[in-house]
Write a structure and sequence with these properties.
binds magnesium ion, binds adenosine-5'-triphosphate, four-stranded antiparallel beta sheet, binds iron/sulfur cluster, globular, 10 helices, Rossmann fold, nine-stranded mixed beta sheet
Length: about 325
């Protein structure tokens, strides 16, 4: 993939290029991810936003190669620190996951094993990645629990996941992510289940983590307010495609795609967190088979005859691109 003009190869942690992920086969296959390209740089928080079903999680699970049984990457490239992941062996992927690529999800209960203590699970993660004794791993686990501000960490080491609040469990997941010094952290709706105060703390930890370690973070959320304050660049997804990608300040100051404009217009100003993006009349389509025209057309106030032809992403400013026929600019040639 052609990198964005201001990307230096050494700065790029992840380069996804023309990624297609389908669910099912034959004419009924769903285009979950349909030609998605983006890069995430070292130390960057890259936000991905869009309504339910737009392909955010499917993009994340494609990178991790943790797709549902009927899902498969049918085309494209995923370069992680220069290594191609789409063709990497399963053993190679297992080694990367939780080691150089860490992940946190909306519900930490699905990632924590309810029958083991949280401390033993963090120790186990440490032992998988570092050479140390069980006693040293326990001390390190307690240290990590202290870093993420678990009160009374030494005694909570022996507590079980259900004895922690949702926010505390998410901190445990961040402690696990810290156990391996990852190059990339994928956070898929990490704070959706949490209240606003806890959300701020969790995002605060992510900010601290990227500042101190240079980890690249992919932050997936419905909540554009959260990205406004906590991301460097944002990709807006719609029906499996990126429809706009730009630096965060640019997206908010100068949104170019009618979908992004509609999202922003319907967003309450100020700090209303936990906001889910379902602001427009109608729902995004599920794309099965060939795409006919711009997928946003049925909901777009500006739709015209030309929109029955599929629009390409067009460059419309430095590091800014949008997928609409009526955005001034030139078609991108990196796909
Ligand atoms: N396990 C699955 N089996 C079949 N289709 C799926 C599966 N998971 C997702 N899909 C489909 O793939 C598309 C992309 O879904 P994805 O989960 O990536 O959306 P999302 O943007 O993460 O949504 P949400 O905000 O609700 O998490 C949707 O059309 C969805 O219906
Ligand atoms: S291509 Fe047409 S339908 Fe699609 S967003 Fe632009 S104006 Fe709207
Ligand atoms: Mg999702």
């Amino acid at each position: 993939m052609a990198l964005m003009t201001d990307d230096k190869p050494d700065d790029v942690a992840l380069a996804v290029s023309n990624l297609h992920t389908t669910i099912g086969t034959g004419p009924g296959a769903v285009r979950g991810v349909d030609g998605v390209s983006f890069t995430v740089r070292r130390g960057e928080i890259f936000g991905i936003a869009g309504e339910s079903g737009s392909g955010k999680s499917m993009t994340a699970f494609s990178i991790l190669r943790l797709l549902p049984t009927r899902g498969r990457i049918s085309e494209g490239s995923i370069l992680f620190k220069g290594e191609e992941l789409t063709t990497l062996s399963e053993a190679g992927m297992r080694k990367l996951r939780g080691d150089r690529i860490a992940m946190i999800f909306q519900d930490p209960m699905t990632s924590l094993n309810p029958v083991f203590t949280v401390g033993s699970q963090i120790s186990e993660a440490i032992l998988q990645h570092r050479r140390m004794s069980a006693t040293q791993a326990q001390a390190e686990a307690i240290r990590l629990m202290e870093i993420v501000e678990i009160p009374d960490a030494a005694s909570r080491y022996s507590a079980f996941p259900h004895q922690f609040s949702g926010g505390m469990r998410q901190r445990i997941m961040i402690a696990m992510a810290l156990s391996c010094a990852p190059d990339l952290l994928i956070a898929d709706e990490p704070t959706t289940a949490l209240d606003v105060t806890v959300e701020k703390q969790i995002i605060g930890f992510l900010q601290k983590l990227r500042r101190e370690t240079g980890v690249a973070i992919m932050l997936i959320t419905h909540n554009l307010n959260l990205l406004a304050e906590n991301s460097d660049r944002i990709a807006i997804m719609y029906a499996g495609q990126i429809v706009e990608l730009a630096p965060t300040s640019e997206i908010f100051a100068n949104p170019r795609h009618p979908y992004t404009q509609a999202l922003l217009n319907s967003m309450p100003r100020g700090h209303i967190s936990q906001q889910r993006l379902v602001p427009l009349a109608g729902v995004p389509p599920r794309i099965v088979g060939k795409r006919s025209g711009c997928s946003f057309a049925p909901r777009c106030p500006m739709a015209q005859e030309l929109c029955t032809t599929v629009p390409e992403l067009r460059d419309c400013g430095v590091g800014h691109s949008a997928r609409c026929w009526f955005v001034e600019g030139s078609p991108r040639h990196d796909k």
